[in-house]
Amino acid sequence: MTGFGGSAVGRRQAIAALGAVAFSLALAGCGSSSDTGTSGETVAAANLDGAIEKPNIKLGFIKLTDMAPLAIAKEKGFFAEEGLNVELEPQANWKVLLDGVIGGQLDGAHMLAGQPLAATIGYGTKADLIAPLSLDLNGNAITLSNKVWAMIEPDLPKEGGKPVHPISASHLKPVVASYKQQGKQFKMGMVFPVSTHNYELRYWLAAGGLNPGFYTNGDVAGTVAADVPLSVTPPPQMPATLEAGTIDGYCVGEPWNQAAVHKKIGVPVITDDEIWHDNPEKVFGLRKDFAEKYPATTAAILRALIKAQQWLDADGGANRAEAVKILSQPNYVGADADVIAASMTGKFTFAPGDTRDAKGFNIFFDKYAGYPFYSDAVWYLTQMRRWGQIADDKTDQWYFDTAKAVYRPDLYLAAAKKLVADGAIPAASVPETDGFRAPQGGFIDGVTYDAKAPNAYLAKFAIGLKQGQRVTASGVSGS
């Protein structure tokens, strides 16, 4: 099977045939109770093959193309194959979705990776949430208004008459300075304070020498000392907010960057893959007590989603056109099919006449996209600390323990290896790992990320909190 984003199959030897003993050893080695010191994980992992305890399930999502695994699992019958009757319900915004999962109105959801982490550490809302599956890699972009694009485009390096990518945020410095001279602020939008979009936008701006601002205790604006203040706008409202002039640019998932191109109101300038190559994006999130109370149901949900992820990346993207039609339905993303197809089918349009190959813009199954790596969780936590959402220094061990409390590869592996044993997915699509990726490059600023040394990683940034620093309303203080 050839994957859309570059399949893992064939790039490594198939893992050994799976028997009951090997299955148990895998669970013990990745996210078991010995890792986190909690007993609920052992209970959940031990009852995965029982009868479905809760066949009627309601899952939430936001109208973005990366909710695709949920829609495909329903429309292609993968949920039904697992004995589940699933209702998918769109949510107004990320806060409503989060509250729905915590309050039990939703059994789980297409969720920002930062949400279960933030809830677990008590940032914003305190709740014990887990992420047993990563939904995708990549999928976001940063768009600027036509006005701003016209100000930076003449000075961009060109090749064949088109801008050379990636485009650095440093090109915005004269624009920001011009706004300031006029007594105005250059403002950008993102979708939620703990969203990947917030951290990607901040990363891009800081890499270009612009400070996106810091958070203080109890402050959800995060604009202390900001050169470019950021504000929250729900994804489907981004184009209208840009068109109204409330913001000068934004970071969002698809199809809302392509919608700006389609409406001729903005120009995407960089994809998140160009900020951090093959970065993790959304997760499937649910309450920890749900997984403990309904272990077989949780496993069935995960198996259905994994099968949907495989379908989305199968055979070089052969199914993507069908996926676009499904997602364009009003009960899912509800955008025009051609707008969704502009990024979902291996291409990405930066401007009229500037469509480029983007085979890996959305990766759902290949490159172990579904596996919830601890290192991905640690990265989000480092960015929370970098910008002050985590107010005080934490030890490296704290990052590891927090990641292991939320990201649950034990549950993912149980579901995935059952699918391998059943012949539903290839053995080589399941990684053999301690949960940490090797040190990662591919960042726009050239900084290497080693998840096993989070504090050393934080010390590498020119813009961002350093060891011993705190944020107050008057600025950054400390050593």
TrEMBL record:
InterPro entries: NrtA/CpmA_ABC-bd_dom. Keywords: Cell inner membrane, Cell membrane, Membrane, Signal, Transport. Its main location: membrane. Residues 1-28 form the signal peptide. It is found in: Endomembrane system. One of its GO terms (cellular component) is endomembrane system. PANTHER family: ALIPHATIC SULFONATES-BINDING PROTEIN-RELATED, BLL4572 PROTEIN. This is Nitrate ABC transporter substrate-binding protein.
